[in-house]
Amino acid sequence: MALTEQQQQAILEALPPLAPCALCEQEDTWTLNASGVVVLRFREDNRDLKDALACVVIACSNCGNTHLIDLTTLGLADFT
Question: Looking at residues 18-30, what average pLDDT do you find?
Fold first, then answer.
């Protein structure tokens, strides 16, 4: 499920100011992948996702450096 404009804005507002990319050192190149939330399961038998991590992806549009941002840490876990 793709993120809505409202969800994207909430994520961007919750993020601290982003530093230049560590790989290419370009500024203002971070983009939020709006295609949805990535859920990482830590155990294959984890059916209820209690130990899962809900993340969104940000990537440098210049070099492709990619980071996962934990929605729970941002206080936005209800997006999942």
Answer: 96
